[in-house]
């Protein structure tokens, strides 16, 4: 299959080697794992690499209020999303769980078109279905969202936490929301928060990827200063070849702000706003300080 299917490379060290060069272009892909398994880091790395390595703009959609911590973590890897957001290359949006699928689709269509988004991440996507009890409605909601992304020619990653509360999310039929996501997605990758056979500090397994002769075994993985790294059998890191960054490090730029509509929040650069925190600006610390400092004065909910 290699060379026939158009691929969307993740740029994540070692991962693309497992699946013939990356996700199938314009597909929807599910990552499932427990807390601390590396899902959010992988999503941000996918978006960061999309801009800096492959010239593809991105969008990060959150359904929970902890995006500040997520972006705090990203600075530890040297990913200055403040600058990319200011340049309109990566946008961050937070949706309330009660947002209807029609409102969500309308807003996503607008933002994807405006910023020429080619990569999008939803974290965690199962929150969309928390208020839906019938399997048919859950399936239709997720199907409508993934179908829209394909029509807009966007490569999508859905992240879902299912290992802790899987049974509590089970519908009357015995199917969980994650089961439905797995069935509808073009690929499914399981992230583990513990190592396999002592290789790395975490692990990953691609259980499904349509139109791809992917590796099916569990593979060691770790999170380093460079982000997620998928390891070889002996725990070695496979450096990616022929990948060059098209972005040049720049001085710190004033942080992005967030514009609000009744249900969504999109990061843009309006005048100073003062209200409750959801997505904060990034302040890069001096080199001798190891922890990033965030300010919430420019954030709205």
Strand proportion: 15-25%
CATH superfamily: P-loop containing nucleotide triphosphate hydrolases
Order of helices and strands: EEEHEHHEHEHEHEEEEEEEE
Total strands: the figure is 15
CATH A-level architecture: 3-Layer(aba) Sandwich
Task: Give the low-confidence spans.
Answer: 164-173, 244-301
Number of helices: 6
Q: What gyration radius follows from the Cα positions, in whole Å?
A: 19 Å
Classify the secondary structure makeup into a structural class. Answer: alpha/beta
Q: Averaging pLDDT over every residue, what do you get? A: 76
Which fold name is given in CATH as the topology? Rossmann fold
Structure, described:
The protein has 301 residues and is an alpha/beta fold. It has a single domain, classed as Rossmann fold (3-Layer(aba) Sandwich). It has six helices and 15 strands. The chain has helices at residues 39-52, 67-75, 81-86, 101-115, 135-151, 177-184; strands spanning 7-8, 23-24, 28-33, 57-62, 90-94, 117-123, 155-160, 187-192, 202-209, 219-224, 227-230, 257-260, 265-268, 281-283, 293-295. The strands form four sheets. Strands 5-4-6-7-3-8-9-10-11 form a nine-stranded mixed sheet, with helices on both faces. A hairpin with a 4-residue loop joins strand 12 and strand 13 (265-268). Helix 4 (101-115) packs parallel to helix 5 (135-151) and helix 5 packs parallel to helix 6. The longest helix has 17 residues, at 135-151. The relative contact order is 0.20.
